[in-house]
Design a protein that fits this description.
alpha+beta, six-stranded antiparallel sheet, globular
Length: 239
């Protein structure tokens, strides 16, 4: 009986040791991916926003295409968080859209990020290239990776709350810092070392975040896409 208990204890100890080593290996791999350089994209705050584009608080860009249409896509924070998507799921031509509703989904493996409509309207064009080349959203988010052209409702104000020029650039810098802070928030206390890694350097590279535990990923994406309160004007370069 004693021998069986000893054998059982040894097996339990070995199983626990294997689990600890596996977790340590996985976390070490994630830390390396967060701190290593990646050729896919630069950190979001270093990605220039082309002239003529406005940025919505939920990281959607807008470009006026004349009187009856606005072209929309996602800014660099989507690929910085998700990496290069495997699939971009979009609405059908003519579909209605409502401000705040999810109008597209970017997926990489079992991780997804929803794209929220910046105004009310209906879809008048869908980027046909995304069906075959979803990675355009990561490689050229402000140009070839556009999502839709949307015709606003008569009562809609597409540019309401959107930022342009210097204001947009300063906002992206603040959002880059918020992204790092969110990683710390969702990583602690489950992995303090991972949270500390985010504070040691710049914005983590694309593709690292999807390896977070499922609950941490959900919290990260939900809070990232929830507009942050505006800072005092003095934080934004004064009046």
């Amino acid at each position: 009986m004693v021998a069986l208990l000893v054998i059982g204890f040894i097996l339990l100890a070995l199983t626990f040791d294997v689990w600890v080593q596996h977790r340590a290996y996985a976390l070490d791999a994630l830390r390396r991916r967060i701190s290593a350089p990646d050729p896919l994209t630069l950190p979001p705050e270093l990605r220039p926003v082309p002239e003529g584009l406005a940025l919505d608080p939920r990281h959607v860009w807008l470009e006026s295409m004349g009187k009856h249409a606005v072209r929309v896509g996602v800014d660099a924070f989507y690929p910085a968080t998700l990496g290069r998507p495997d699939v971009v799921r979009t609405l059908d031509l003519g579909a209605p859209v409502w401000r705040g509703a999810v109008i597209a989904t970017l997926a990489r493996g079992d991780r997804e990020m929803g794209v929220h409509a910046p105004f009310d309207g209906h879809v008048v064009a869908v980027n046909p290239a995304l069906a075959q080349t979803p990675g355009l959203v990561a490689e050229a988010p402000y140009t070839e990776g556009w999502l839709y052209r949307i015709e606003p409702l008569t009562s809609a104000r597409p540019m309401l709350g959107a930022r342009t020029g210097r204001t947009a650039r300063e906002w992206l810098i603040r959002e880059g810092q918020r992204l790092k802070e969110l990683l710390v928030k969702v990583s602690l206390p489950s992995d303090p070392a991972l949270g500390a890694t985010a504070l040691d350097g710049g914005v983590p590279v694309p593709g690292a975040y999807p390896e977070l535990p499922e609950e941490a990923w959900r919290r990260l994406t939900e809070e990232l896409l929830e507009p942050a309160p505006e800072p005092p004007r003095s934080w934004r370069g004064g009046a």
